[in-house]
Design goal:
Helices cover 69% and strands 0% of the residues. It is built from 10 helices and no strands. 30% of the residues are buried.
């Protein structure tokens, strides 16, 4: 009887290839997750750059104001827009929209965050709003820049001009709301509309303050720059797993829309 040696067992190669490809596809996802967990990604860097540039630029402008630097565009722009005042009704409405209504919106936003278990974020927003309000008033006293000639001496509050608290507070409060819209699951079109609306509102508030002869154009410009820096701080401290968005402060973790989009993209690529 002839004995045939048993055929050598063959190991299928397909699972190995699948395993290799699976590991390859998982590695970038793990890397992205690790980067996000450490808070070091492109979005965090962008928020940091915005915060640093905005606040440093505002500080530099404040130093210039302390040295009584004359901004060449102030007189010409003020002379250009002053005739637009008319009876002043529209401009006063725009100006006052950044007064009492902002206080209500700001307090309401803090309360909503607190009672929806985002308490660290509520504390952060409250501190930023206090810093913006008290800081602008303190800088007014420090710089002591006179308002344009013809300003009503009975203006309530601090009588000095630099910076414009109306513009600063409007940009910060509505900017925080726009960032929430951007991070929500609403469409990119809605997010873009919210961002544009915030910019237009801050610009119109600043313009109204200049048209009403309550501020110099450079006051409004500096406040826009400072507001952008404050929003950079807020964006940085509330992005991903940053301090103000720790999961322990929420019953249900809500990832950034940016992270969700990245996850969807990696899932479709795999």
């Amino acid at each position: 009887m002839t004995h045939h040696p048993p055929a050598p067992a063959t190991v299928p190669a397909t699972p190995a290839r699948a395993s290799t490809s699976g590991a390859t596809s998982e590695d970038p996802a793990r890397a992205r997750a690790g980067i996000r967990s450490r808070g070091v990604d492109g979005i965090s860097i962008a928020w940091l750059v915005l915060a640093v540039l905005g606040l440093v630029a505002f500080a530099a402008i404040t130093v210039e104001m302390l040295n009584h630097v004359v901004w060449p565009f102030d007189q010409s722009l003020l002379a250009t827009v002053r005739p637009w005042v008319g009876d002043g009704t529209i401009w006063r409405v725009l100006s006052e929209s950044a007064n009492i209504p902002l206080i209500v919106i700001g307090v309401g936003m803090v309360l909503v965050l607190f009672f929806t278990h985002r308490r660290r974020e509520a504390v952060l927003v409250a501190l930023l709003l206090i810093a913006v309000t008290a800081g602008s008033e303190g800088i007014k006293q420090l710089v002591a820049r006179p308002r344009p000639e013809g300003t009503d001496p009975n203006i309530p509050g601090v009588v000095y001009s630099f910076p414009s608290g109306h513009v600063l507070e409007a940009l910060v409060i509505f900017g925080v709301i726009a960032i929430h819209v951007l991070r929500s699951h609403l469409s990119r079109v809605v997010a873009a509309i919210a961002a544009v609306a915030v910019i237009v509102d801050a610009f119109l508030v600043g313009l109204s303050r200049v048209v009403l002869n309550a501020h110099w154009p450079s006051d409004a410009m500096a406040s826009l720059i400072a507001g952008a820096g404050v929003l950079g701080i807020y964006g940085l401290l509330t992005h991903g797993d940053a301090w103000a968005t720790k999961r322990s402060d929420r019953h249900d973790h809500e990832p950034d829309a940016t992270d969700a989009r990245n996850g969807d993209a990696s899932g479709s690529a795999a």
